[in-house]
Every structure is written in structure tokens, then in C-alpha cells.
Design goal:
Oligomer: single chain
Shape: elongated
Largest sheet: 2 strands, antiparallel
Radius of gyration: 24 Å
Length: about 450
Amino acid sequence: MQGFGGTPSRVCDNCRRRKIRCNREQPCDKCLEISLVCEYKDIARRKGPKGRQAPVLTSLRSKVKSDGSSTLTHDAQPINNVIAGFSPVSMVSLNDCLSSAGYDVPLLTSELYTAGPAPGPPRISSTQLQAHLHVFLTYLYPIMPVVDKDALLIDCANPEVLGPRRYALLVALSAAAHLQLNLDMPQENAGVDIPQSGQSLLKEALRTLQQFDPLEDPHVDNVLTMFFLFAAYGNLRKTHQAWHYLNQSICFAYMLKLNVESTYTALGQHEADMFRRIYWLLFITERAYALQTCRPVMLRSTIRKPSVFQSESPTMMYGFNNLILLFEKIIPDFYDWNIGDLGEPCNLSSFANIYKSVAFASPLLDEVSETSRVDFVLTQQWLQTRLWRFYMDRKDFCQAQNNSDLPTLLPAIAGKSVMACLSSVAQKSTDAHGIGAVGYFLPLSNSL
């Protein structure tokens, strides 16, 4: 229904369901903000009883069956309770994970949403996206707290109405979670190549990226999509593709000026803090991957850290900020030394200070979650081992002061610290690192 002058006389369908203010434009500002298709099709009905019996989010997250009927999912429960008992690394397949969550539809990437007309190829179903998002929020969000959980849960309910930019983000996140947690487990008598299911999600994300030009309108969704593509390729051990998409993500962050403190003054508290988390996650990731693959770094410590006490989980953000501080201790010059040949000169006297600052970093690990504790200990011991390996390879070529000598048995000491940490935490806390943890253990074993 149109009012005078062509302006809709009522709120759009999405804002009405979400019970938020709508500016009644076509499209409205709220739909534009999260890339929803803005429509004015629903017929206004009488208002019925309100209250906790029919929350809007439960309705939006309802599961669509093949016959078109709708039943409520477990989304009415707190998100961390839905699959709290899962251990994806030890499961046979993601279908077991799905059935444990209460879904009765097998989670196969070949299952596509076909209910209702859709422009172009059919998209991955709501059920699949919801299940992957649940897994991500339960296992990976504590170490990657960079998405708006509520907005993504709403988006997963109706993927067929999303714009390609938002849909690409959801699928890229699903691919990263699928591959990070090694959810493609070999099965006996399988007639297909099971590991392809994670890669199928990756291909769907890449296909969706071809439907629009992200450079026309740089958006934070592009930053996250490229980051999750990096994570997916990194877990596939495809280093060139991984480095490419990590740099794509960083480039979009530069376009949005996330590296400039003044950018955040015009944003609301929640949005500004989320953008800070994104920038610092890129900072941590770039430095870790550059050290692992002998590449240079671009990002610098140019903005303030994310808020701890004003966040939804101070213990989680305290652990996240400690990881930032750990990587800040390694100066950018070290990455240039790491790229050079063994015979090239480097200042090992300043290198000794870098090693000591990493080795003696001692945050209050009892004040963080188990997942964050495992993340910090693994990263700290891995960094020490990488620094030790760098020093041992070059000490005969570079002039070093006496205090530059490092413990000969450092890899063994680091290995004991890692094993002591892993043996003291729940399986869920170690599952978050999945097959990516292999990147931590290989330098330890090689140095030993």
C-alpha cells in the first residue's frame, strides 16, 4: 500500500516482524543495514496477545520443512545451550552434530533451499546455515568475536531474500567453521569424497562473490567474507589462496579506514567496538600467518583496543586483548628479518628483547575462558619456538651479544607447557582450534 507521494503508508515486512522503527522508504534503512530484501507484501492483521509466548526471534528462526510447514527450532534456548554437548572433531560427521541439536534434516551441502521462487541458482538452505552458525558461535566465536550474532541468526532464517553480499558472508563463515573444525570425517563404504562437502561451501561462497562487485560499495561484510575465505583456505593448506584473501580483507579494512582512530568517533558504541575487534583480529592473524609463511606485515597498532568491561563477555575480551598484546611485542622489523636469507645481517641483541617480552608475558589466565586460555598458551609457546628456531639458524651468521643465547631445550619446555595446558581443559576448548592446531605443533616437533 502506497501513501501520498509514493511513500509506503506502513512499515516493511522485516521491520514489522522485528518490531523496530522503519523509515518506510523503499528500501528502508534497517533492511539496507543488514542487506535484507525490503518488501511491503504482508497484509496487516489485528494485533493479538503479546508476551513471552511468541517472541519474534523464535518465529524468524523457525525451520522450514520440505512440505512447506514450519516447526520451532531450538533457537528459543540460549545459543550456548543448543549444542553444548557437541565435540565435532571426535564426531563421525556433521549429520550427528545436527541431530544432536534437534534437527531432523540431514546436513548435506547438496541440500539446497527450493521452497519458493529464487532468482538464479538455488541457495543453501536455512537449516544448513543455522547449524553451521550454531557451531561457529559455540566453538569459534570465543576466539573470533567479530560478528553480530543476533543479526546473523535472523539472516539465516531466510537466506533466499538476502542480497549477495550478506549471503556470501554467511556461506564463507560456514565454510570456515566446517573446515576449521574438521567436520568432514571419513566414513566407511562412502561412495563419495566426503571432504568435498566443506569445499562445496567454499565454492558456493566464491560463486556468490561473482554476482556483485564488492569494490563498488566497500562494506564491513566484505572484510569478514574475505577473512573467512582466508580461514577456509588456510585449513586446506592452500597458502597462496589463503594469503590472497587475507590481504583482500586487509585492503577492505583500509578502504573503510578501520586503521584510523577518528573513524570510530562517528559510530555507535556497539558498532565501533565490533569494528575494533575486526581490525585487531586481522592484526593478530596477519602477524601469525606472516611469521608462519615468511611474509611481510602491513597492519600497525594505530587504534585503541576493544572494550573489555563494556562487552557482552569481559572474560572473553580480556583473553582476546591479551593475544593482541602478545603479538604487539614482536616489532615489524622482525618480519623483514624473517624473510631474508640466513646470511643477511640482523640485530640479534634487539632480538633477545623480543624473545623475553614474549616468553615472560603472563596475563591472568585464570580470569579468561578455557578456550581463550588454550589459544594464548598455544600461541605463546608457538611464538617462542619460532623465535628460537630463527635464532638458532642465524646465530653463527650474526654478531650477537652474550645475553642473546636462548635455552637449548626450549622446544621441549614449550612442548611440556602445551601438553600440560591441553590436559587440564575440556575437549570443547581444544576443538575450537581444530586442524589449525597442527600449525602450532609442527614447529615444536620439527625443532625437537
